[in-house]
């Protein structure tokens, strides 16, 4: 059975070694942004399905150069895609950062989670009662936690701005 995201954050609970199960026909893919074909697929997915206004009049769009620069420090295991055959239908990135709070003695190694995008036709998809979006969050969290000395991931959320 799948667990809630918060359960992965419990230091008393071991982090799963095996990837989370995906619905039939989909598979995990570690994206290599150094490969121009993969960079192109990530760029196209984000361009067509990333954050947009409800009426589709506004969408955030990044250049390939920016994406390559922003995710350049992440290893392939932290650039996670969901594929259906050769088509990239989902993507989520974790990039290593150092975070220092006013109470910490030294910066802590963390992961910044960004560019979470699912093709519009998969946004309501579930597997064993859990949304595909939640499964992607669980998997990127698992990969971050199984990485070198990283036990904190920072996530952001988006909300459409209200009209003025």
Write the layout of secondary structure elements.
Layout: H1 5-8, E1 27-30, H2 36-49, H3 64-70, E2 79-84, E3 87-99, E4 108-118, E5 126-127, E6 130-131, H4 132-145, E7 153-154
Parallel strand pairs: 4-7
Antiparallel strand pairs: 1-2, 2-3, 3-4, 5-6
What percent strand?
A: 15-25%
Number of strands: 7
What's the end-to-end separation, in Å? 45 Å
Order of helices and strands: HEHHEEEEEHE
The protein's oligomeric status is single chain
- For the largest sheet, list the strands in their spatial order: 1-2-3-4-7
**Global outline:** globular
Q: What value does the average pLDDT take? A: 83
Give a short account of the largest sheet.
5 strands, mixed
**Fraction of residues in H or I helices:** 10-25%
Question: How many helices in DSSP terms?
Answer: 4
Radius of gyration: 16 Å
Which residue ranges are poorly predicted, with pLDDT under 50 across at least 5 consecutive positions? 1-8, 160-164
Structural class: alpha+beta
Describe the 3D structure.
The chain is an alpha+beta fold. Helices cover 24% and strands 24% of the residues. The chain has 4 helices and 7 strands. It has helices at residues 5-8, 36-49, 64-70, 132-145, and strands spanning 27-30, 79-84, 87-99, 108-118, 126-127, 130-131, 153-154. Strands 1-2-3-4-7 form a 5-stranded mixed β-sheet. The chain has a two-stranded antiparallel sheet with strand order 5-6.
Describe the structure concisely for a colleague:
The chain has 164 residues and is of the alpha+beta class. Helices cover 24% and strands 24% of the residues.
